[in-house]
Amino acid sequence: MKSSEKNLTDGDHPWLSVQLIFESVLDAPQWDRESVLQKSCKGDEALVEEVRGLLKAFEDSKESIESFADRIAIAESEHRSKLHESLLDDYQIVRELNRGGQGVVYEAIRKETNEKVAIKFLLSGPFASQDVKLRFRREVELVESLRHPGIVRILDSGLASGHQYYVMSFVEGTHLDEYACEHCQTIDDRVRLFIRICEAIQHAHSYGVIHRDLKPSNILVDNEGMPHVVDFGLARDTERDSDETLKLSMTGQVMGTMSYMSPEQAAGNHSQTEVSSDVYSLGVMLYQVLADDLPYELGNGVAEDIQTIQTASPKSLRGREPHVAGDLETIVRKTLSKEKSRRYLTAGALAEDLERFLDGKPIDAKRDSPLYVLNKVAKRHWITALTAASLISLLAMSLVISLILWQRARSARNAEALSA
User: Fold this and answer.
1) pTM for this model (two decimals)
2) DSSP class of residue 151?
3) What is the edge-to-edge ordering of all strands in the sheet holding 163-169?
4) 222: left (phi > 0), else alpha (psi -120 to 50), else beta?
5) Beta bridge partners of 159
């Protein structure tokens, strides 16, 4: 056995020993690897050098693979950029801005006017499925129907050699969460910024358009502090969507970004995704803007995350950010209600209550009554509640029986005393 092990390595040590030490050193943190190596080799310098040789070979190969993958990605991006630029004579593509599952967005220059614009191409081009192509066309139609300074504007759209695209106004901006951290010095500043977002979403809702993917990366705030809502790729038109187009939402599958989904959206009930679902997503973003954190601990797997969104209470906002007033936390909690009927009816109603808060007026949102909280806890922990109720009933019954027996005993003693 020992002779066969030696044949597996050029050194003088059994391969199994070298391999075990190599793996243990590799598992150790970078800063502790030398210490682990020395302890494992127990002063055998030849063994130390063998393991070091393996580690160097591993790191070199790893860097080579990563470098190769990076070069491939860059080459692919450059090739796609040149391909797309060759399709549009009127535009010069400057750089890639963003790439999602279905589309790629470029910064570009309109040659005739020297205007800076953004161009979105359907990523799979002419090879996209009919559903994907239809969804892309619907996005164009929905955004073209909206005219609001807080919503990105579509300037042009079309089909070039089988590649669908649309041109939109370019927003030189920062994602909402980053902007709030860097530029909003007070809680009131963040609330004022958020009111503008609510007003833009209210405009979309008034035209029957539900965004369904509201999150900080889909809100770009420009240098003047004006937020712009972008990416309506998952939007739904409540007024014009037919049964066929609703099928594009793939009922039963999760669509959107988990951290910002309403309970009904996380469950895959896309036909029930209404205005109140966007209001819920606004509530998650408002919580994040105020506390620089999310209201729930997620990241434990899709099934558990969905359960958390549907049942867990949001973390205390004032516990995360003590400067948040009680009324503001009440507003946030109303937007995050699990029951749609308990949320704000519209994004505009949320904006109005935030305005009332800033003006020092009484807000419309009311704190949950103790009875409502008790009822929710009972429903969530019904076994415990049932057991507690049973115990209370049993104790009450025992007390009644004890009182009856005590009364009877007392009456008997009184009767004996009178007869004597």
Assistant:
1) 0.68
2) B
3) 91-99, 103-110, 115-122, 163-169, 154-160
4) beta
5) 164
Rg (CA), the chain: 32
Per 3-state DSSP, the chain is made up of helix, strand and coil in percentages (nearest 5) of: 60, 15, 30
Q: Report how far residue 229's alpha carbon sits from residue 210's, in angstroms, rounded to the nearest whole number.
A: 12
Cα torsion 141, 144, 148, 151: sign: positive
Rounded distance between C-alpha atoms, residue 373 and residue 379, angstroms: 10
Q: Is 331 left (phi over 0), alpha (psi -120 to 50) or beta?
A: alpha
Q: Say which of 89, 131, 189, 213 is annotated catalytic.
A: 213
The conformation of residue 323, written as its DSSP 8-state character, comes to: T
Distance CA 286, CA 264 (A): 19
Each residue of 272-325: pLDDT tens digit? 788 999 999 999 999 999 999 999 998 888 888 889 999 999 999 988 888 889
d(CA 316, CA 333): 9
Residue 355 carries which side chain, given as an amino acid letter?
E
Enumerate helices (H) and strands (E) in the chain, giving the number of each: 16, 10
Query: Is 213 an active-site residue?
Result: yes
Cα(277)–Cα(275) distance, integer angstroms: 5
